[in-house]
Amino acid sequence: MLITGGTAFSPMSGTAAIGVVARNDQGVVVAALSAPISACYDVEEAEARAILEGLQMASELKIKCVALESDSALAVDASNATTRNHCQFWSVYKEIGLTKSVFSSCSISYTRRKLNSLAHELAKRASVSGVYSRWFDLVPEDIASLAKRDLVNIVYV
């Protein structure tokens, strides 16, 4: 299962939003999430929270082997670290570590933003609307069309 996470961040207001997309081994979207998050004053924290939400989604889907991708090298490195992170939101990374342990296989890696554009689109939507949305199996047609465009980027890069 491939999980991608993305964020939309507004440092002035301290608000952010996340988008998470879960794809099966054929690249079909099996779940997605679009959610605003409050009290977030750092883009790395928003990215870490997107990673955590992606792992939690995979756990809910009862997935055993997860590959999660993020376009934040800082958040990826901290999520894979074996020592305590001393940033102000280290508890998010601690929760990521605990959540990773429920999978038989779990990798968190860096990807270019172009390859997780659907997750970023979902984050932008939540940023504008302020609405939390989750989809399992059937995603709305507008998201499905974005997913097809995103899949072309993944396949041909």
First-last Cα distance: 19 Å
* Number of self-contained structural domains: 1
Which homologous superfamily in CATH is the superfamily? Ribonuclease H-like superfamily/Ribonuclease H
Residue-averaged pLDDT: 85
Number of helices: 5
Q: How many strands in all?
A: 6
Rounded radius of gyration (Å): 14 Å
Stretches with pLDDT under 50, minimum 5 residues: none
The profile of the biggest β sheet is: 6 strands, mixed
Q: Beta-strand level of the residues, as a percent range?
A: 25-35%
- Can you tell me the CATH architecture? 2-Layer Sandwich
CATH top-level class: Alpha Beta
Q: Can you give the helix content as a percent range?
A: 40-55%
Class computed from helices, strands and strand pairing? alpha/beta
CATH fold label: Nucleotidyltransferase, domain 5
Strand order of the largest sheet: 5-4-1-2-3-6
How would you sum up the global shape? globular
SSE pattern, N- to C-terminal: EEEHEHHEHEH
GO molecular function: nucleic acid binding; RNA-DNA hybrid ribonuclease activity
Domain RNase H type-1: 8-126
Protein name: RNase H type-1 domain-containing protein
Pfam families: RVT_3
Report on the structure:
This protein is α/β, with parallel strands linked by helices and 157 residues long. The protein has a single domain, classed as Ribonuclease H-like superfamily/Ribonuclease H (Nucleotidyltransferase, domain 5, 2-Layer Sandwich). The chain contains five helices and six strands, in the order βββαβααβαβα. It has helices at residues 43-60, 73-80, 90-100, 117-129, 141-156, and strands at residues 2-10, 15-23, 29-37, 65-70, 105-110, 133-136. It has a six-stranded mixed β-sheet with strand order 5-4-1-2-3-6, with helices on both faces. Helix 1 crosses helix 2 (73-80), helix 1 packs parallel to helix 3 (90-100) and helix 4 packs antiparallel against helix 5. It is globular, with a radius of gyration of 14 Å. The model has no long low-confidence stretch (mean pLDDT 85). It holds the Pfam family RVT_3. It comes from Lolium multiflorum. This is RNase H type-1 domain-containing protein. Residues 8-126 form the RNase H type-1 domain. One of its GO terms (molecular function) is RNA-DNA hybrid ribonuclease activity.
